[in-house]
Amino acid sequence: MSLTAALDSARASLMASGIQSSVVSRNIAGASTAGYSRKITVLDNLPGAGVYVAAIQRAASGGLFTNVLTATSASAKQSAIYDGLQKIAAATVDDPELDQSPTAQLNKLKQALQQYANAPDNTTLAQAAVSSAKDMATSLNQATQTVQSVREGADADMATSVANINKLLTQFDTVNTAIVKGTIAGDDVTDYLDQRDSIVSKLSQEVGVTMSIRANGDAALYTDSGVVLFDKTARTVSFAATNAYTPGTTGNAVYIDGVPVTGANSVMPLKTGKLAGLAQLRDNATVTYQSQLDEIARGLITAFKESDQSPVPTLADRPGLFTYPGAPTVPASATVLVGLAGTITVAASVDPSATPAGNPNLLRDGAISGLPAYNYNTTGMAGFSTRLHQLVSNMDAAQPFDTTTQGKPNGSVIDFASSSTSWIENQRKTANDNVQYQNTLLDRSNSALSNVNGVNMDDEMSLMLQVERTYSASSKLISTVDDMLKSLLAAVGTS
């Protein structure tokens, strides 16, 4: 090798070592930065010119990154469902000491009726029974408010999620364009690749997403149901929020480029992600639980209805202790009357606190509607208990319930309320178990990816020492060649 070739080789080594040192420094600086992947200097040898930096790559694994995206989306969906169910359960069934569940309130009402039946001439016990009935109605009213509040909150969170998705897609567009241009120009785009992966990771929290890499580093995004999110340009994700919810309200669907991805009419519904979880919470679990509350209310009205006591009955049954805006008819059997739990009340005619004050003894006597034909205590006896014992029996009597509610299809109103409590608890437990499972998968996926693309400080410091030794050797070689050239020139000059 000539001295000139040796000098060129040493200079090339110095340049390569300088770039290596810079990359190692970047790795050390980015070690604690979320989303940073370890950068690798790829060296090659050019005959006659020595070593050079062929490329700067990043440590990555497409398969492991996909696993992280999948686990993130699945975890976000289950968390959204669990959070909503937790709010409902906490307000309706969680605290045994408060006896706030419909089942607890029903049992208290039954106990109050039994006590009143044992002393039907006791006005204080009559008032206590009416008060317990009012507590029962209030618990159903408040449970309905809680369910609709959760639905309303889910709808608002869906609007926030859609806004986040559109924002992230705009950011993705900017970074993806920079990657394509940089790749074509031969620039180092590894930091842009990190940024793009970070954006996609955030996007996966909102919606299940897959990324397809194409020529020149270009990428396309699809939902887990196959709808295009980004292909050269970002697709518009739209959603019209509903500000107030009642039991009969149907929330709007989310659209991606005009294609519905949530709701009953969606042919390509989202499978995972926070948005999918919120939609499922708003449209499925909460609606089912509301229908169960409505059936409890209907079962109460049925159990306490009054019948025509004429020798030859001709009049239809009428609501008694419990009534609703649809009175004087009794709701149809085994059919959900949407929103009934939110409107059920105790008849004012038996409520002492009403204006004008009601008569609680009508619970014993009948004719709560004010029609004499429905009077059970025709003799006006203060010790009349037949009707009260009948009401207690009615609370234990089997009646059919709407099978679409997923509660007990046939049994007493107390049995149905108990099945409703079990249902919401089971739904919450299942969601919590799913959250724990998906979080475990996410932790393992993140750990596996970190083992591939994470920065190990010990390895980086060891590499830095190696680069320093190479740099020192190259410098020494240049110094030696310089001395040799000086000696050669000196010898030529004296000849």
From TrEMBL:
GO terms for cellular component: bacterial-type flagellum hook; extracellular region. Residues 454-489 form the Flagellar basal-body/hook protein C-terminal domain. GO terms for molecular function: structural molecule activity. It is found in: Bacterial flagellum; Secreted. The lineage of its organism: Bacteria, Pseudomonadati, Pseudomonadota, Alphaproteobacteria, Hyphomicrobiales. This is Flagellar hook-associated protein 1. Belongs to the flagella basal body rod proteins family. SUPFAM superfamilies: Phase 1 flagellin. PANTHER family: FLAGELLAR HOOK-ASSOCIATED PROTEIN 1. InterPro entries: Flg_bb/hook_C_dom, FlgK, FlgK_helical. Residues 103-306 form the Flagellar hook-associated protein FlgK helical domain. NCBIfam families: flgK_ends. It comes from the Bacteria.
